[in-house]
């Protein structure tokens, strides 16, 4: 089946790195919006000289090229894609949209630190307390059906946290944390709303077509053993 991609108002290029969750936000948004764009992989361990000279002297991804202009910071680049394709990436109801923003902010404040500390700050043993964070987060999730606000596809706020959900689940399924954590999340009725929603995000085209499990698993092992 041939899928016809939407043509953006100006050509889009995304400079990204396969394991970068920040860059993945914009990548997911572009795929979800079914937009034509060029993907350029930047090897962050061996940055091309042209990238530093012409694209980003700070050496970071993501960078979005829109027409002849460049812009950085994943929150900004992803929102730009949503502004270009609002029907695909925003909830129509302004209040639901505000609630979805609060939900993703709370995810980053409450749940994300457990992942970050486990992987980057050698605090794997504290990860079993992730349920205290999920408990506080649950009231902000309301009842996604299957996505926030009853949407049948993930919208901007969910896309902002989708790369961290995929990496959180990679950690949960890994040898580095107790299998009991995943078992509780997937079987305790209290966490059904969270787990079903997370699985829907993982199965969405934006995540399924951009998340490279094998490469990210290597990255996970690298940081955990460091
Ligand atoms: N706040 C930035 C963070 C971007 C970031 O930290 N990107 C990392 C890769 S995940 C990077 O490019 N690091 C440069 C390096 O490793 O030298 C954003 O949200 O875009």
Describe the secondary-structure layout.
Layout: E1 12-16, H1 21-32, E2 38-41, H2 49-55, E3 63-66, E4 69-72, H3 74-84, H4 86-89, H5 94-120, H6 130-141, H7 156-172, H8 179-187, H9 192-203, H10 205-208, H11 213-225
Parallel strand pairs: 1-2
Antiparallel strand pairs: 1-3, 3-4
Note down, in words, how this protein is organized.
There is one protein chain. With 226 residues, this protein is α+β, with helices and mostly antiparallel strands. The protein has two domains: 12-88, 3-Layer(aba) Sandwich (Glutaredoxin); 91-225, Glutathione S-transferase Yfyf (Class Pi), Chain A, domain 2 (Up-down Bundle), CATH 1.20.1050.10. 57% of the residues lie in helices and 8% in strands. Strands 2-1-3-4 form a four-stranded mixed sheet, covered by helices on one side. A hairpin with a 2-residue loop joins β3 (63-66) and β4 (69-72). α1 packs parallel to α3 (74-84) and α5 packs parallel to α7. The protein starts with 11 loop residues before the first strand and ends with a helix. Residues 17, 20, 22, 44, 59-62, 73-74 line the site of glutathione (GSH).
Summarize the structure.
The protein has 226 residues and is an alpha+beta fold. The chain has helices at residues 21-32, 49-55, 74-84, 86-89, 94-120, 130-141, 156-172, 179-187, 192-203, 205-208, 213-225; strands at 12-16, 38-41, 63-66, 69-72.
């Amino acid at each position: 089946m041939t899928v016809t991609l939407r043509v953006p108002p100006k050509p889009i290029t995304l400079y990204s790195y396969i394991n970068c969750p920040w860059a993945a936000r914009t990548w997911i948004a572009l795929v979800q919006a079914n937009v034509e764009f060029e993907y350029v992989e930047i090897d962050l361990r061996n940055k091309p000289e042209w990238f530093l000279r012409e694209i980003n002297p700070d050496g970071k991804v993501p960078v979005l090229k829109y027409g002849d202009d460049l812009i950085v910071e994943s929150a900004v680049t992803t929102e730009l894609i949503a502004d270009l394709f609002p029907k695909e990436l925003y909830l129509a109801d302004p209040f639901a949209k505000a609630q979805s923003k609060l939900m993703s902010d709370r995810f980053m404040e409450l749940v994300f630190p457990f992942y970050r500390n486990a992987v980057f700050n050698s605090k794997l043993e504290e990860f079993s307390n992730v349920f205290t964070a999920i408990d506080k987060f649950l009231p902000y999730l309301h009842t996604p059906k299957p996505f926030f606000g009853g949407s049948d596809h993930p919208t901007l706020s969910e896309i902002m946290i989708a790369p961290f959900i995929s990496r959180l689940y990679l950690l949960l399924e890994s040898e580095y944390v107790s299998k009991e954590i995943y078992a509780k999340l997937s079987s305790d009725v209290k966490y059904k709303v969270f787990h079903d929603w997370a699985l829907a995000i993982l199965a969405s085209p934006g995540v399924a077509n951009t998340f490279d499990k094998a490469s990210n698993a290597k990255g996970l092992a690298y940081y955990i053993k460091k």
